[in-house]
Amino acid sequence: MKPAPFKYHAPHLLEEALSLMNQHADEAKLLAGGQSLVPAMNFRVVQPSLLIDLNHVQEMAYISEDKNALHIGAMARERQLEFNASIETRTPLLHEAVPFIAHPQIRNRGTIGGSIVNADPAAELPVLMLALDARLKAQSISGERWINAKDFFAGMFTTALEPNEILVEIELPFMSAHTGWSFMEVAPRAGDYALMGVAALVTLDENGKCTHAKLVYLNAGDGPVDAKDAAKSLEGETLSDALMESAAAMASEKEINPFGNVHTSPEFQRHLAKVLTKKALKQAIQRAGGAQ
Ligand SMILES: Cc1cc2nc3c(=O)[nH]c(=O)nc-3n(C[C@H](O)[C@H](O)[C@H](O)COP(=O)(O)OP(=O)(O)OC[C@H]3O[C@@H](n4cnc5c(N)ncnc54)[C@H](O)[C@@H]3O)c2cc1C
Prior knowledge:
Bound molecules: flavin-adenine dinucleotide
Shape: globular
Structural class: alpha+beta
CATH topology of the largest domain: Uridine Diphospho-n-acetylenolpyruvylglucosamine Reductase, domain 3
CATH architecture of the largest domain: 2-Layer Sandwich
Number of strands: 12
CATH class of the largest domain: Alpha Beta
Distance between the termini: 52 Å
Order of helices and strands: EHEHEEEHHHHHHEEHEEEEEHHH
């Protein structure tokens, strides 16, 4: 299929892109890596009359760090995230998870901003934004605002961005030294969207007690799903197998809401969530310096 006819602008400055978005918000689409937008246009699911190509906006493609956080421009490619040394040391959960996204060819083009704004419930990056307490900077010609990841994802393929706003930066606080992490998923083949996946974080104190935990799931509802009650049940405790089993049961039976698809039933997704949660918690505890 071919897309419906559209006009095309390729600004070199963010300011120009913001101005175009302001004039044409209702009919325009931003083009980042094009890995989701272009197929959707070819299927004519989306028919923008104007495409604003961000690929020449160099000022949106950085990865930097200050004292407490990483700052990632929305046009940084997924492949850039994969090989960035700051991401590997400051947010090892993100480093571990990025290679699970699609194939290298797709990661060469796909951007962090495009994936986050696309808000596919089966995508890895929205889950990681929630797990890592990211803040997302939205900009329009009227100014900028920061949105916490937990308030950004508003349902399937839907976000809190206004039509004239561009996601420009992602801020990720450094993971703390006593925090262990794990990212696990099951996909039919390497590179396919996963049937189920989980990002687990566990922080332990000097006595090995859990002070903070996080469990966030992909393909488990209409957006990334934060299993808050299961994570809370681990806090203040020394993490035994029985406790992990009960947290995994709570998350997979009560907190996630998988829909199933052509490859899987919701029941199998819940089974996968339970198995993956136990495995991911064990690995996270080990990496936090615990006994598991
Ligand atoms: C075969 C295939 C397999 C894939 N498998 C996976 C997978 O396993 N896991 C996974 O997570 N992803 C997967 N993807 C998706 C891919 O990784 C990209 O992350 C994703 O398509 C979006 O990134 P993009 O930069 O290509 O965005 P685009 O496709 O260019 O844009 C996506 C949407 O975001 C909007 N947008 C883009 N940038 C901005 C911005 N800065 N501000 C506001 N709006 C913006 C666009 O207007 C569009 O609506 C797959 C894609 C393909 C083609």
